[in-house]
Specification:
The chain starts with a helix and ends with a helix. It contains 13 helices and no strands. It is an all-alpha fold and 253 residues long. 32% of the residues are buried. The structure holds a DNA duplex (11 and 11 nucleotides).
DNA sequence: AAGTCGGGGAA
DNA sequence: TTCCCAGACTT
C-alpha cells in the first residue's frame, strides 16, 4: 500500500514537473502562426484540416488562400466543388477537401451556420477525428480536451519513457489518458499549444534539442538513453521492405 | 488491426 | 531512400 502510494506520488511529481516546465517554457510569440491566438471556430477548423499530416510550412499558404477566398463558412459552403478542389491542389489527401466542403455545407444548412460548440458536435463533422475535435474544442471554445497528435505521442513517450506502440489500440488509449491527466484544465488552449510547439521545436523526431530542453533533467528516455527508440510504432514500412527484399532475394536464387 | 490516402522537407 | 508531418476513414 505504502509502496503504491509512494510510486503514485512520484508519478504525480513527474507530471507536475512536466506541466510547470512546459508552461514556463512556452512563449507564444516564439512561433507566431496565423491561426494562433484566435478563437474563430471556422478559422481554427480550417487550419486543423489543412494541417492534418501536413507540415506547418507547407500548409501556411493554403490556409491564407482559403481564408482569403472564403472569409466565412457560408462562403465556403457556397463554393463550387471544382473551385475548392482546385484551391486544394498540391496539398495531397484530397478526401480532406471533399470532407471540408461537406462539413461546411452541413454546418451552413443543417446548423444554421453556427459552428458546433461541443466536443461531440465537432467530432461529428466529416474529416474531424479525435485530435482535430480536441484542437477545435480547446482553441476555439477553451474546452478541456487534450490534443494527441504526432508531437504529443513523441513528447510523452520520451519524457515518461513509454514504449507502448503509439499506433496500437492500447497505445492510443494509454497516451490519450495520460494526455488528459496532464491537461491543465484551467487553460486548455494554452497547454495544448505549448505541448505541440514543444514537440515541433525542441523534442524533434530526429536530433531533438535535449541540450537546451527545459525538461531534460526529468526525461526518462534521455536518462535511459532511449531517445532514438521512442516513440515506438508498430506499423513499420521498414520491416515490410526488409521482409519483401529478403523474399525477393530467395526467388532470385 | 491493418490498409489507404500524398506532397514535401530533412537526414 | 527513409521517416515523418497539428490524422481520419474504410475494410
Amino acid at each position: 500500500m505504502s509502496q503504491a502510494v509512494s510510486r503514485y506520488n512520484k508519478s504525480m511529481d513527474q507530471q507536475h514537473f512536466f506541466q510547470r516546465g512546459l508552461i514556463a517554457w512556452y512563449q507564444p510569440e516564439n512561433r507566431p502562426l496565423p491561426w494562433k491566438g484566435i478563437n474563430n471556430p471556422y478559422h481554427i477548423w480550417l487550419s486543423e484540416i489543412i494541417l492534418q499530416q501536413t507540415r506547418v510550412e507547407q500548409g501556411m499558404s493554403y490556409y491564407l488562400r482559403f481564408v482569403e477566398a472564403y472569409p466565412s463558412i457560408r462562403d465556403l459552403a457556397a463554393a463550387p466543388d471544382d473551385e475548392v478542389m482546385k484551391l486544394w491542389e498540391g496539398l495531397g489527401y484530397y478526401s480532406r477537401a471533399r470532407n471540408l466542403l461537406a462539413a461546411a455545407r452541413y454546418v451552413t444548412t443543417e446548423l444554421g451556420g453556427v459552428f458546433p460548440h461541443t466536443y461531440t458536435g465537432i467530432l461529428a463533422l466529416k474529416g474531424v477525428g479525435a485530435y482535430t475535435a480536441a484542437a477545435i474544442a480547446s482553441f476555439a471554445f477553451n474546452l478541456p480536451h487534450a490534443v494527441v497528435d504526432g508531437n504529443v505521442f513523441r513528447v510523452l513517450a520520451r519524457f515518461f519513457g513509454i514504449s507502448t506502440p503509439q499506433d496500437s489500440t492500447a497505445g492510443k488509449k494509454e497516451f490519450t489518458q495520460l494526455a488528459e491527466s496532464l491537461l491543465q484544465r484551467d487553460q486548455p488552449a494554452l497547454y495544448n499549444q505549448a505541448i505541440m510547439d514543444f514537440g515541433a521545436t525542441v523534442c524533434l523526431p530526429r536530433n531533438p534539442k535535449c541540450g537546451q530542453c527545459p525538461l531534460h533533467t526529468e526525461c526518462v528516455a534521455l536518462r535511459d538513453k532511449r531517445i532514438a527508440e521512442l516513440p515506438v510504432k508498430s506499423k513499420k514500412a521498414d520491416q515490410d521492405r526488409a521482409f519483401f527484399s529478403l523474399f525477393d532475394l530467395q526467388l532470385r536464387r
